[in-house]
Amino acid sequence: MDSARLVTARLYHRFGFGPRPGEYAAALRAGTSATRSNLLTVPSIDSGAQRVTEPVLTDLGRFPNANDPQLPLFSANRRDQIRVLTSWWLDRMVLSDHALTERMTWFWHGHWATAIDKLNYALPMYVQNQTLRKNALGNFRDMSLAMIKDGALQFWLDGQENTATAPNENLARELMELFILGVNRYTESDVKELARSLTGYQVVRSSGVLTFNSRRFDPNPKTILGRTIAYDALSATNHLVDQSDCQLFISERLWYRFISSQNPLPRGSRIESAFNQRSISAAVAALADFEYLSDAQHSLVKSPVEWFVSSCRALSITPSQLTNPNNLIGYLNKLSQVPFNPPNVGGWPTDEAWLSSASAQFRFDFAQWFIKQGDISPIANLAASQRVEAVTDWLGIAELSDRTKFALQGAATDPKRFVLLALCSPEYIVSA
Amino acid sequence: MDLISRRKFLALTSGVAIGAVAPILSLQDVAQAAIDRPLPANTPILVALTLYGGNDGLNTLIPYSDSLYFSSRPGISYPVETLLTLDSSLALNPSMGGIKTLWDEKKVAIIRGVGYPKPDRSHFSSMAKWQTGNPLSHISTGWLGRWIDTQPTDPMLAISLGSVLPPLLAGAKKSGSALPLGGLVIPSGQLALDCARLSTPSSSDSKLMALAASTMKNLFNISDSITPVLKKNVPGSAVELPTVNGGNAGGDSNLSQQLDVVAKLIDAGAPTRVWSVSLGGFDTHANEANAQAALLGSVSNSISRFMTQLKSTTRSKDVVVMVYSEFGRRVVGNASQGTDHGTSGPVFVIGDRIAGGFYGDQPSLSKLVDGDLAVTTDFRSIYATILEKVLKAPPEKILNGWKTKIPFYKAV
């Protein structure tokens, strides 16, 4: 396979959400180094993202009682806000001119996986999303310190129930296992001591506002990972981020999502050393290394959201403008991935999990629906004989197999069918 | 939530790589195999039910005569008068009426205090230990997967309901198959032709692209005119049960639906000796009593309904159901009327060929280990018994030399 085409396709599909029409061919002309630095550089103004109107979310207050006449209206408002929030983020992923920022926000959402299912309010999830975006390429320490005070995360992992008299270990355990250190890099005693350090917070569920109640806080000394002081949430989080296991773990997670879920992070990688000051952008730059990007064995399956968003960018679709936004959520739900609603605190699965006969069927249904509403002129405006040739650059596919070329040739006179097959081809579902 | 919930566990056990890519079966495949080569009569069949999230054993099998139980768990324990008493010291959760009836019929073995050395309180690591059957080192094959390795190749031999295969059924050379629930409509006409072209294997495919192509191809194995076997109603009387949602730490949510499919296919004669089903939602860190009762009610009602359905078939006495979870929960409740991750818990083994009663010692509430229940029985003893008696295989090879067994299986 042509190495420049492969590297460029991976840069677009993994460090962004796929190319817009014309971008892939232009990137090939510019060369991989220029493309890499272009995609990794945060622009001072993101006019694409600015075109997306921020969602109007209000604090809806407590759930009315079961027989309260206000309940139906309340429920409708609550569902509306969740829908608006979800399509707002999808719009940003599609329209942003700096896709890496959205891509990293998406990564961190899966990392600090918080599900709206338990909160049932949009506002706290929006606040969390802003925190993740603000820190998406910043310093992991700042992010961790902000997240430990995030109302949605605290509520999701029962932090508001964690008190000096009866510690609840849910948040403490996941903070070490899934967010900062990785499994088995601490003892059970560390979990218990960390839980005591995190006591004292209460959350207003409908807004995510976090308050500290010193009477619920355990001020005594705690021993965490061999060091004993009177930790609180911030000092304990700092202590975890200080550990070399944090450096290893975050490097492992980045590798797993951006390079390969099949092959482990190489020992002593440059990613790890780049992350020694906990700079996320430095780690991401090390991750987007030509050695990894040109290694044919590191293929990754696009998750349903990644596949949908990259299709929207190619077809100039704005998700919130699709007819009946509930359909959109319904299709994503059938494919088992709706933003703001990861299946559990471990985030979404990878690779094989997205490939089943059921998902193949749902992907066809979904694509048939949105292709009708998309702009397929980059294909439709060409002569039928030129379409197969043009589709790889349009979608940012490094190379098509003879199998897929043959299937596409059979549909070359029918542009909608042609695009359907291209979007559902193994070469587009998988980032080679 | 129907297909995703078990994936949450699979997502996090990425270290436990699945050896071979699991075949995805269609209902029609299994139904056809049931007709072509039915399982020989009297072959024992194992149904493994995994409760994801860490089922609270102390609120499942309740030491109701121990005052420490009530004093440790204000707000989480159940009133004595609602409990289903089994003997002078232990009772079942009030929601488990169906299991209680089976217990009274002497068809339920309850193995107490089950766990493994050095308990791990991570959902994902602990479930990996239970499913691989190896608590000592990190390996990638499941204990039933290693049994599959010893058998002639047959994609129908071991089937997991749902679209993703649990490590339990992953062998080194072979693996069980996944059977997704829910009907699929196969593409027809022009689209069918297109799909067939698009799903042809290509020599240039990477492993994942080949999988994308083959899963698309499998769509065609599913016909919209299902065989008469599948058109039949569920054996016995089918009463609709409410579904209980799967929660935070893995497991599917539609247990009764999964078991309905299993009952139907067992009745039809599917050549399948191991079935894997699951229920999620047991991670009850908060407001446990009601949530757990609803979940255990679903387990109990689904199993009871399943056993009743089997009664009208010729294979009723062949089926053994094993119910387990990755760990029990802490003895003392937390401030949220819930419990945090703990250690040992009871395992239920149910069937006509089971010698009903208690096995293993009940962990003492006054002799806790670091505030947790002691482990009195190693899960490998249960696995060894099942391998030898139900699956007719020498357990030592599969369980790394483990020999101890438990006499809960009676010859019929």
What does this structure look like?
The complex is a heterodimer of chains A (432) and B (412). With 432 residues, chain A is mainly alpha-helical. Chain A has two domains: 3-44 and 299-431, no CATH class; 139-258 and 264-297, no CATH class. Chain A is built from 25 helices and six strands. In chain A, the strands form three sheets. In chain A, strands 1-2 form a two-stranded antiparallel ribbon. Chain A has a two-stranded antiparallel ribbon with strand order 3-4. Chain A has a two-stranded antiparallel ribbon with strand order 5-6. In chain A, a hairpin with a 2-residue loop joins strand 3 and strand 4. The longest helix of chain A is centred in the first third of the chain and has 25 residues, at 71-95. In chain B, the strands form two sheets. In chain B, strands 1, 5, 6, 7, 8, 9, 10, 11 and 12 form a nine-stranded mixed beta sheet that branches. A three-stranded antiparallel beta sheet of chain B has the order 2-4-3, with no helix packed on it. In chain B, helix 10 runs parallel beside helix 11 (288-311). Chain B has one domain (5-184, 233-398): Alkaline Phosphatase, subunit A (3-Layer(aba) Sandwich), CATH 3.40.720. With 412 residues, chain B is an alpha/beta fold. In chain B, a hairpin with a 5-residue loop joins strand 3 (84-85) and strand 4 (91-92). At the A-B interface, helix 11, strand 5, helix 20, helix 23 and helix 24 of A face helix 1, helix 7 and helix 8 of B.
